[in-house]
Amino acid sequence: MDFPLPETTPDAVGLDAARLERMCRRVEADIAEGRHPGAQLAVARHGKIALFRSFGEAAKGRAATDETLWLLYSNTKVVTAAGLWALAEDGVISLTDPIARHLPGFEAGGKGDITFVQLLTHQGGFPSAAIPEECWEDPEALRRTVCAFPLEWEPGSRVRYHPASAHWVAAAVIRAVAGEDHREFLRRRLIAPLGLERELFVGLPKREQTRAADMHDPDGTPRQPECGAAHRAAGVPGGGGYGTARAMAAFYQCLLAGGAPILSRRVIQYALRNRTGDRVDEYNGIPMHRGLGPHLRGTTAHIRGIGTLAHPDSFGHGGVGSSYCWGDPDSGVSFAFLSNTRADEEFHVARMERLSNMVHASIRE
């Protein structure tokens, strides 16, 4: 099956090829220095893939190829959030609704007024809550567990990244209102209509698992359970998706183009508003300018991942220590970088600042 976006050259879409080559050489240098075994990146503009390249090893003794699937970690959050956008567009929910209206029992412990807006902007008040592995394939256990999440502070009073908890709530809501598992809903409603069903997965089928890159710690040790079949299949909605860099660049091209054919322009505009202003995200220590899924560049001095040079309306998300994907509405450029090591924060932040800025600097017109 052909990839849904055509390929072109950087020059043909107004990008400086030499600058992008320098970026690729920087990735190669990081691999040579032992920072990570492999990586993949893609740059797209105006509905075309301008650069798609794979580097190094996907796993020990196995070269990374264009067919390799990479763990997206929290880049998955944007795909899952888009599932809630779709439910709002279809008239099933309103994003300003209390979650408990659609997930009875969630009101327990003072959570009855938490809205989807608060959930997706990391203001829900339960950042430390976790889902045990035994809930991954047990919908009733998942529902009971998310409904029992204890509040740590008053919802809406603080902004603090919810690494694992918020999007399991989203998964439980999707099952409750759509009547199907979140993995199947996201595939049917979003991924398949974009033609990305071979390159973007929330829940990796058994037949595709041989394509997955192993995830490593900085010392090169494979990470568990991320390298296990159960984790790959679970479709952890806040951190367990798999994909190629060009699939993520294409997904962001869809958002840049107003959501067609999967979502409407109005729901995209609504989702990409800055809902937290310049309030500091206590987890990251800086303002993150949270939209309903992605975060935005904004105009503060520093930002994670998207690059300081980015247009203020640029939006995206990262995957812990390993990846970042973003789109720039001003230029129409989207970028995805995926790697297979959960690197330390100091290196990862500096790397993504460098790589993203090199892409921004390549925009000629």
UniProtKB/TrEMBL annotation:
SUPFAM superfamilies reported for this sequence: beta-lactamase/transpeptidase-like
Record region (Disordered): 209-229
Top-level taxon: Bacteria
Biased composition regions of type Basic and acidic residues, renumbered to the chain: 209-220
One matching Pfam family: Beta-lactamase
Start and end residues of each Beta-lactamase-related domain: 26-348
Name of the protein in question: Beta-lactamase family protein
Source organism of the structure: Sabulicella glaciei
Taxonomic path: Bacteria, Pseudomonadati, Pseudomonadota, Alphaproteobacteria, Acetobacterales
